[in-house]
Amino acid sequence: MTADAIQKLSASDAVMRKLIREIGPCTLKPETRRTPFQSLVQAVAHQQLNGTAANTILLRFTKLFPGRRFPRPEDLAGVPDESLRGAGFSRAKVASIRDIAANTLSGVVPTSRQIARLTDDEIVARLIAVRGVGRWTAEMLLIFQLGRANVLPADDFGVRSGFRIAYRRLEMPTAKELLAHGERWRPFRTTAAWYLWRAADRAKESA
Questions:
Q1: HEC string of 148-187?
Q2: Rounded distance, CA 3 to CA 25, Å?
Q3: H helix runs in the chain, sequence order
Q4: Of all residues in the chain, what percent carry a pLDDT higher than 70?
Q5: 1-5, 82-86, 168-172, 173-177: least confidently modelled range
Q6: Whether the bond into 187 is cis, omega within 30 of 0
Q7: Contact status, residue 76 vs residue 44, Cβ threshold 8 Å
Q8: Tell me, what's the pLDDT at 207?
Q9: CA angle at residue 186 from 178 to 137, to 5 degrees?
Q10: Which of 13, 75, 81, 156 is catalytic?
Q11: Domains of the chain, with CATH numbers?
C-alpha cells in the first residue's frame, strides 16, 4: 500500500497513527497471479479452520490433479466427491467447490480479466450468488487477490478484535460500529484493516 494511505490514516485517526508507528510499514502484497476461481476455493478451504490445517487440505487437493499448479474449473468433473472428501473437505465444502467451478464455467464468477473491470460492490454481488461464498469470502478476494484499497471486512473476527484492542474497548465492536468509525479511513480502509489484524496478532503473541 502507498505512502498516501499511511499519511491519510495517520492524519485522520490518532489511534491508527500510534498503531502504524508501533507496527511499521504495511507489508500487504496481493497474490495477483491467482484466478478468482483459485482464490474462492482457497477461501472456502480456510473457512472455520486454522491456516495450517487448510493449507494441508489444499496440498492434498492439488495432488489430485497431477501436472497442474492448481486445477481449472473443468478439471473437477474428473474427480469424484469421495476423492475431495479424502483430501479433507467436508460435504458442505465439496458442494461449495463444485458450485464455484460450475459458476466459473457459466460466467457468474468472472475471469481475471473481467474482474479487474468491476467495482468492489459488483464483485461482491456476483460472488455471493455462489454456494458457500459470503460477503467475507468476497472481501478476502478483493484484498488478497485484487489488492483493492478501500475494503473493510467488518465481520472479520481478527479486524474486530484488533479494533477492540487498539481502541481499548471493553467489548467487541459490532460490524455497524466498525464501519461507522472506518468512514474516516476512506479511501484506504484495506490498509487500516491490515493494521487491525496486526494489532490482534501482536496481542496473541504477547498473551
A1: CCCCCCCCCHHHHHHHHHHCCCCCCCCHHHHHHHHHHHCC
A2: 9
A3: 3-12, 14-23, 36-46, 51-63, 81-87, 91-106, 112-115, 120-127, 135-144, 157-166, 175-182, 189-206
A4: 99
A5: 1-5
A6: yes
A7: no
A8: 63
A9: 60
A10: 156
A11: 3-28+152-206 (1.10.1670.40), 36-144 (1.10.340.30)
Does 206 have pLDDT greater than 80? Answer: no
Give Rg (Cα) of the chain.
18
Task: Give the integer Cα–Cα distance in Å for 153 and 160.
Answer: 9
- The amino acid at residue 24 is G
Q: What is the reported pLDDT for 50?
A: 81
Q: Residue 131 gets which letter from DSSP? A: T
For residues 76-108, b (16+ Cβ closer than 10 Å) or e, as one string? beeeeeeebeebbbeeebbebbbbbbbbbeeee
Q: Once rounded to an integer, what is the mean pLDDT over residues 4-24?
A: 96
**Closest CA relative to residue 43, chosen from 185, 145, 111, 118:** 145
Q: Can you tell me the distance from the alpha carbon of 159 to that of 65, in angstroms, rounded to the nearest whole number?
A: 35
pLDDT of residue 72: 96
Cα–Cα distance for residue pair 53/109, rounded to 1 Å: 26
For the question of residue 156 being annotated catalytic, the response is yes
Q: What is the mean pLDDT of residues 124-134?
A: 95
